[in-house]
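User: Hey, quick favor. My workstation is busy. Could you predict this chain's structure for me?
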Amino acid sequence: MPYSRGTSNNIIVGAAALFVADTTLTPGTLEGFDSSESFKTTLSGDAAYTNVGYTMNGLELQFQPDFGEVAVDQILDVAKLYKQGMQVNLATAFAEATLENLLLALAFKDTQLTGNKAASTGQVLNLSAGELGECPVERGIVAVGPGTGDCDASDTVERVYTAYRALSIENVTVSAKRDEPSMFEVSFRLLPEDTSGSYGKIVDRTWGQS
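Assistant: No problem, here it is.
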């Protein structure tokens, strides 16, 4: 094969649409692909998924392996590394400062958001500290973004990121400032799904093909 500098079509630029599921996901409960439409369209028609709308700073997946070391007398460096742990995080910022998005960012239960902002009594998010022994709220996350740098194929090629179990564990700041938008920066800790031991999956797919 002749030498090639690279392939510019593999340079992917662009943010993803982010959806949060009502509950955790598994390989069997994740919504299936429809060959005739984008997965964004499929999830938008499913009431079990909430589109968080505009985001800022895109989507960032961080994999943090933890390795142990075996040192021996005969060399000054370690002789062997072994994997003893793993941590995966997903970070983004919700640019739409709705109470629905704040509930997701704080990992609150759905029951803590009541009322309707169009009504005179308003919409209320109860900021409860919780109780001893209370289980943290885990939800599944699906993001759909560009899957190619080829402009001619970009309308039908997408990359789907799926996290089966996600839990918001970092500080969440709510602000109202004169020169900055109100948004919720959120970091999710991903946990492996019980049956498969998988955090989720990333799929490159092309839709609309006969």
